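## retry 2 of 3
previous attempt timed out at serialization; input unchanged, resubmitting
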Amino acid sequence: METADYKLLLTCPSGLLPSQLSVVFDRSYDRIPHPNAELEDSIGQIWEDRVQGNSSLFNGKKYRYGGYSLRDGGEAKGVSHPCLHLGSTDYRTFVGTNLNPLWENFLALSEVVFTVDDVIKCQHTASPLGNGAIVVTADNEIVVLRRSDNVGEFPGHFVFPGGHPEPDEVVLATSQNGQDFVSIEELHKKISEEIFDSIAREVVEEIGVPATSLSTPVFIGLSRRILNVRPAAFFYMKCNLPSKEVHQLYSSALDGYESIQLHTVSPVVLEHMKSKMPGCHQGGFALYKLMIQASTNA
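## retry succeeded, writing output
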């Protein structure tokens, strides 16, 4: 599904638990440098210009989205589960490619028919995998944040709580007890866990609710905004607190500086707000509606 603002790369309307989503991390999914040296050189200059204008920006490692495949569901015969293909990138390269004013010049031109998620088309962009959560309160309101004017991406826009899965969290987990090396299988398992753990962490930090008030995140799909081809994974989470209490807790949120206002709204109201959301988050709302439709039909 594709609109003027977003493309749905993967839809999972029944929702997937951590055991149903796997990950392969391989450097073959890293960004391929663009053959135009001048364009490549612009990455560093764009970053320096952005940092000078906003001293709160900092570089950090990110997982690069390199597509997905469908794998056999194991004991559940006839059922296939998605496997995300991830490489390595960083925020600096994201700013210098996806957020570059000349971002379209980084897109690969090819006579090859692009795969469903346009992996070839985006091979020269950083395309870090973002995440977002559609959090529904006990009184069936959806949590939406208005971003601060100081953030590096879409300041002042409405968004769902979210951020990025963090490679450093996986390194920390695998280095505990002096364990400096893990098998590939164990590494992939840790990254898969971080995909889910990170969105729960982002929700707690950004809106201030306790982790115990939230259900286990359920993966509902991948969305990519058309503007600068930014990919994001989206999840559904239920919060057992009413909207009024969520508003009260927001004032003490750890990452409250990233947003300036919290809204709790009905799907009908959000339908009118979505034009002021980044395209990938509009796609996240579309994934949520597909989930609701599937559950209604069931």
